[in-house]
UniProtKB/TrEMBL annotation, chains A, B, C, D, E:
Cellular component annotations (GO), alphabetically ordered: plasma membrane
GO molecular function per UniProt: cobalt ion binding; cobalt ion transmembrane transporter activity; magnesium ion binding; magnesium ion transmembrane transporter activity
Name recorded for this polypeptide: Magnesium and cobalt transport protein CorA
Membrane topology: Multi-pass membrane protein
Taxonomic superkingdom: Bacteria
Function according to Swiss-Prot or TrEMBL: Mediates influx of magnesium ions. Alternates between open and closed states. Activated by low cytoplasmic Mg(2+) levels. Inactive when cytoplasmic Mg(2+) levels are high.
Pfam families documented for this protein: CorA (PF01544)
Transmembrane regions listed in the UniProt entry: 264-283, 295-315
Chief location of this protein within or outside the cell: membrane
Keywords: Cell membrane, Ion transport, Magnesium, Membrane, Transmembrane, Transmembrane helix, Transport
Family as reported in the entry's similarity comment: Belongs to the CorA metal ion transporter (MIT) (TC 1.A.35) family.
Cell location: Cell membrane
SUPFAM superfamilies: CorA soluble domain-like, Magnesium transport protein CorA, transmembrane region
């Protein structure tokens, strides 16, 4: 579905144009066309492939989605695939955007995602001094907008992690903690796969030899790389902390069990000594003089109570109870 | 066993030719010969080694199989070894294919595998505009076909993993989970050894200096590398998740055991207090006034029941029962 | 808030100057201006951006803070971001400083930190033979001062770790140890994120092609890198030791539990044999000759005591008690 | 001890020569001398050092043994150290071979190993078309022969691992498994130290700038590297699997213990309820009407049996028994 | 404290000279001065800094000690810092040596170490053919001597590890093992920090562009690197084995505990069945016919003994006892 198709010149919007007229606008020097598609049909892609002379393999990738993030050059055209990741009420959004950038065009194809890039277009049109840089700046603005949406995910994971950490030394919270740590690990993995491959290749867009379309916006692309590196570091830190937390959690369970075992041992001993003593005085020997004493029974109760009390005091002192 | 041997010119099939005529066809400019063998005999290899002037070490590798995946240059000839991996009803297929590519020939030698490349040949012949690129494109088509068969394995592992993850927090499923995780780990390892060494060397086929036969198909080989990178990332993610899952599973077992220990402790205490009390009133002292009371017995039963009930309530509240 | 703004020439202080006069001082050859801001307002940054012709992206980073440490070149201007980390009574200081360095100016913008750089300025003014090197040396002096504050953190962590290690083989200290190890791990992670990204890029400031402003102070920047490498190694060693310590701690808990289980088993057996023997002589059979013996009861007590004593001796010998 | 000393020309053996004549043979163009020593004495090494003008440091290494595998150039002479590893009835052979290769000589010094290289010499003499390449091919043949002996070790470890894996989920096999896994890990480490350092440096013998003596045998040395890479990958896979297997084994022990604990809990409860009930009817109250009933005893037995049976059924259903 | 200060020419010792005369000797071509200091005072360092024109940052490092090992070039002067590590009766020696090497001087500053380098000087003077290479060879000799002292530490750790490994599968040795493994890990870490940073930079002293003073001794410095690599590999192997041993040790504890639990369960069951049976015959029902039988008591004892014996046999067979 076509979202919009606009021609720009010198950083200013010229006109909304129909797809069929693209060819003539693209031919004008200093002019570039910015087309946005959403869940594009094969027909749309075929037409635009023709208009912008795109490579069939890139078109394949844009159509099928589920690519890994990447930046590829096909001749003078740059092909960028990014993952759209955003927290939604029903879980993590798993969309994707493919961007084709040539000297005089930008084509973005968004898949499986409700969140559009209209804000990016508006911001670009409000900053003609930047938009003047041409299609390279549009690529930057699109990438920046995608990456900016990763930060809230990091924040959410950080605060989840903090919450779990607050409970990690609580007794009895182990099962709950471990379930949440596992779920967090999965989310961190998803985000890492959106960021890490991109970080590896973003270096191509600034510094040494860069694609022609990016030449005038290098400092912006370095900023992109810096943001990606920040997210990547944050994700790695989260993953590392999760690994430690799982290990610590296991330790806590073992420690708790150890304490339970000690307490069990202590009470078992207290009851067992009482039972053993009572058993002795329950034997049926004829000649057990204390059985006949007037104070035999209270004495026995005292002996039992005393033995139990003594053990209780010992265990208490040893920290088992 | 010879599967087929065909000569092509300008992307079009010229003729099925006998092996003995290869020499004259290979001599024609713009023409190339595509030979497919299966579980080749020493004689066949000897003959073709002579026809195409192949290196003895490469022939050794093609004959013996069980090589690691690799891409090697012998003069102008490219030698590629790939693992054939496919899910079968009786486990994972463990075949191998060796491909020799020169300016005017392609020779594929398939070992221990039922699955052929006829589909590849058909697809190539249907796309003369690509086949025109020569033997390099055939290499791409063969590699692409091998790698495409890896994706269903990834999907199968992913869905297995999801199933195990669904059961990982279930009580009593630990033994079953750990067995399946271990089996999954092994499968992931097998696939990784098919993919990782290839990924390391695919970069040689596009980008900087590339072998002459690949020069015109570089973007296709970059696509190959991209697919391999995708599979490799997926396998790494699966391995990483398995490692965490094994650890989490161990935690769950420990947590469960801890809960069992607590429950055991609780019931043991309840029975032990009953036994201890009964033991006391079972002592044979002569002067135990309560034994003579009319309501002594019910009182004793109430005392025992009360003590047991009190403990039950305490343990219930503490979450041990 | 402006801290101060001073012009220097040939390593000597010329004058405190108002911000508005910067332009004319900057124009004088061999002269440079050193401006220090703290929690700068947007207005201040806007004005200085104009005076020194700074890049908007760098200004963004300086304003927002929470960047990762980095060193970036914008044309002839160097932009450095560092984390200010210092132990305070109320935890770890989490400030940040952004430094812009051009041929004839240094601008430092400090955020969220009470600790200033007045000492650095004083030291520089006391060493005119070094300050003569120009703005590059000021950058060195600032960086050196920031990094010097990391060392006490390392020392604190080392001594904490030593303390924990002293307790790691103590019985009953497991819970406490694991909590402290976890807290230590977190602190080490915070410090690592302040150091590691900086270490990666410091190599740009000495050795091969270096930014013009650093050219005369290369050996000083190599010293910076050396200090960072030392801290990084120390942090890695701490993290590694923590990981081992957590594992060892878990082992100790398991060993302790194992010992508790054995002791429990031993006492349980001793009481159980006493109870069983007493139970036998408490049976109500009519024909139990020993019940009638005059020495029956002492004999029974001896038998019970003997059995218990025998077990006690066996368990003692086996190291269970 | 001198094994043999032979001169070759154009791939054909000329004569067995005495060590003292080496000098004159070495002086003949297109001729090279191949000397094999075993557990060489200092005198032999001193003489040959003089004949071939070898570097003192290399001679030191050859004399002392216990070097790490390496490939070093001393001027035009190549110095190679390799580990001889072979399964023997009394454990792993731990020998070493040092090889010096110059334009017109090959000197191999074997230490602490019963297994010689006569087979290599014979094979070389049977292939004059290869031996014509000169001393470089002899180096290849020796290296190939050493590395070929590593493969059976890999196979043995693989089959050991398979055997352990077959027992890893068996009850009660944990102690045995862990001992064997640990022993296997050690063997894998020994083999890795023989292979990994060599793999790092073999790249120097083919591809870019290579030592003169290897120039004509580059494809053979690439084959060496390929074999080393294969062994290295196999060892890494074994080590990785061992790590997982140890972890899984620990999980299995914990699971088994958990099951034992449950069973123990169940039987303890069944006996405890019987004892508690019997204890109650063993109390000495005067007014316990059921004690006088004719059917009191059978009723009590039924009650005890019923309670025990009920618990047995509950535990059975819960999978504890 | 000055140890000695000697001038050399063409590999031969000329004279012991006072520090004040250094300047004139250094001025003579083909002559170099070798100065050795121990725990140098600030005055000594200031004077020698002046004589040899050393960089202030290097002097700082030499004075303060506690540097990481490193090799730095300051103009034509090479600055090397190495850790002195040696086993002493009272633990590990933790000294340090800083070495300055110029075309015509060598200055070594040793800190916190009793072990000197007189042996190195003697060995050098005995080998004038090597010492002729100049100050570079002295640097090699010093480095070699420092590194040679690392090997006995490796051997000691290896034999400690072997001893622990011998006890790792012993019952009851777990606590002792884990303490020793932890201590060993710490020692390995200390040694690794002495070796690894040095290994990273030793490559600068041979091969491509090397500092002028090392140019004639490159093969010797490659030997240094080789030794460092050997130690590094050995330390890594030790660390790896320790990690596995800790894990295996934990497994053994768990296995042992599991066995203890089983044994406990078994004996508990045997006593519990005896107590339960005795309890039944201890009930006070009037109509318990067996109580009146002449053979009732022996029968009861038999029943109890039989039940206990049956359980004993069952548990024995199941391997629990």
């Amino acid at each position: 579905m076509l979202i919009n198709c606009v021609a720009y010149e010198d950083g200013r919007k010229l006109a909304d144009i129909p797809i069929d007229d693209i060819e003539e606008w693209v031919a004008r020097p200093r002019c570039f066309v910015w087309v946005a598609l959403r869940d594009a049909t094969d027909d749309e892609l075929r037409q635009l492939r023709h208009e912008f002379d795109l490579h069939e393999l890139a078109i394949e990738d844009a159509r099928h989605g589920h690519q890994r993030p990447k930046i590829e050059e096909y001749g003078d055209t740059l092909f960028v695939v990014m993952k759209l990741r955003e927290a939604r009420s029903d879980g993590l959004e798993m969309g994707e955007v493919a961007i084709f950038v040539g000297a005089n065009f930008v084509l973005s194809v968004r898949n499986h995602s409700a969140h559009g890039f209209l804000g990016v277009r508006e911001r670009c049109e409000r900053e003609p001094e930047h938009l003047k840089q041409g299609s390279g700046f549009v690529l930057y603005a699109l990438m920046d907008s995608v990456i900016d949406r990763y930060f809230p995910l990091i924040d959410a994971m950080d605060s989840d992690l903090e919450e779990i950490e607050g409970a990690i030394f609580d007794r009895g919270a182990a099962r709950w903690n471990i379930q949440r740590l596992y779920a967090l690990k999965r989310r961190a993995t998803v985000l890492r796969h959106a960021v890490a491959p991109l970080l590896e290749v973003t270096g191509k867009l600034h510094g040494g030899r860069v694609p022609a379309v990016c030449a005038h916006s290098q400092e912006f692309f370095r900023d992109i790389e810096d943001h990606l590196a920040r997210i990547n570091t944050a994700v790695d830190a989260i993953r590392d902390t999760i690994a430690t937390a799982i290990q610590v959690n296991l330790s806590m369970v073992t420690i708790e069990e150890s304490e339970t075992t000690k307490r069990l041992a202590a009470w078992a001993a207290i009851f067992a000594i009482s039972t053993a003593l009572a058993g002795i005085w329950g034997m049926n020997f004829e000649h057990m003089p204390e059985l006949k004493w007037a104070w035999g029974y209270p004495m026995a109760l005292n002996a039992i109570g005393g033995a139990a009390g003594f053990l209780f005091w010992r265990f208490k002192r040893a920290g088992w109870l």
